[in-house]
Amino acid sequence: MKIRLDSVEKRFRSARGDELVALSRLDLEIGAGEFVCLVGPSGCGKTTLINLMAGFDRPTAGTVQIDGHPVTGPDPDHIMIFQDYGLYPWKTVLGNVLFGLQAKGMKESEARERANAYLDLVGLGRFAGSHPHELSGGMKQRVAIARALAMEPSVLFMDEPFAALDAFTRLRLQDEVLRLWEEKRPTVVFVTHDLDEAIYLGGRVVLMAPDPGRVSKVLTVDLPRPCDRTSDAFATYRRELFEEFHLVHREAAGEVAYSI
Ligand SMILES: Nc1ncnc2c1ncn2[C@@H]1O[C@H](COP(=O)(O)OP(=O)(O)OP(=O)(O)O)[C@@H](O)[C@H]1O
Predict the structure, then answer these.
(1) Which residues of the chain fall below pLDDT 50?
(2) Is the CB of 44 under 6 A from ligand 1?
(3) What pLDDT was estimated at residue 4?
(4) DSSP annotation string for 192-212
(5) What is the pLDDT at residue 258?
(6) Residue of 38, 46, 83 best suited for mutating to test ligand 1, as the one with most atoms within 8 Å of CB
(7) CA-CA distance, 101 to 21, in Å (whole number)?
(8) Ligand 1 centre and the CA of 232: distance in Å?
(9) pTM summary value
(10) What was the pLDDT predicted at 183?
(11) A single GO molecular function, which one (predicted)?
(12) Concatenated DSSP letters for 181-195?
């Protein structure tokens, strides 16, 4: 078992001193090489949960383990990709991808070879000498993906990585991420607001509910991937997830239903 959360609780204290339960007694197991998507209404604790798994924060109670070891801080083998790309603007595209490899102490020639190979993999080999400001949002996110994958991490955390992108780029990058996942098989935890994206990418979709943040439902998506978004099977999963999502919303809004 790759990632395991047992009775995880996370409390925050607001500026006014009130205590907020962001996550309550949450149990979850994610297998090695799985692709799991986290969805749920705003404020249900998705980012809090992924931050705990990535070691950016510690639970108030309960345990978070990866490969049987408690997570006590960030690990170079467990990499996070953020929505805002996090590229160094003063470095070239190649320089951005090289940075982590050099920091790891990899031999220069080997690092360059690997960085170029990953840039080719995301279709940006020709832009190795460009700077981030010369690229579109989708291209920047592909650099961030190449940079993360070049480290060949065993776990990849992605927090709404495509949220800022247009629909067309988003669909393309979904296919790219799936292809790269099939090739390298890292364990992927992917936060999204987009239920279709979650079904398309995730072998399992974890639906969370707020107040307090918890797992409301885990849906196993048994489709060959990449799957056909227009198929009846996809529509069936979609209906099931949307129905659950409405239930969670209704609960969160005090029994008042509204559409998304
Ligand atoms: N550092 C913090 N201090 C105080 N409260 C926090 C902190 N981080 C998160 N929270 C609170 O914890 C709850 C969960 O936040 P979180 O960002 O994990 O939700 P989310 O599901 O990722 O939301 P969104 O979909 O809007 O990004 C929210 O009520 C938020 O206000």
Answers:
(1) 256-260
(2) yes
(3) 97
(4) -S-HHHHHHH-SEEEEEETTT
(5) 39
(6) 46
(7) 38
(8) 35
(9) 0.90
(10) 87
(11) ATP binding
(12) HHHH--EEEEE-S-H
pLDDT in the model for residue 207: 96
Backbone φ, ψ for residue 210 (5° rounding): -95, 175
What's the distance, CA 250 to chain centroid?
A: 26
* Dihedral angle of Cα 251, 192, 259, 242, to the nearest 10 degrees: -80
Find tokens 């107040």 and name the residue. Answer: 211
Any idea where the domains of the chain sit in the sequence?
Answer: 30-58+68-77+155-252, 87-152
230 Cβ below 6 A of ligand 1: no
Q: 43 C-alpha vs ligand 1 centroid, how far in Å?
A: 5
Q: Which fold has domain 30-58+68-77+155-252?
A: Rossmann fold (3.40.50)
In b/e form, how buried is each residue of 57-81, taking b as 16+ CB within 10 angstroms?
bebeebebbbeeeebeeeeeebbbb
Peptide bond into 186 cis (omega under 30): no
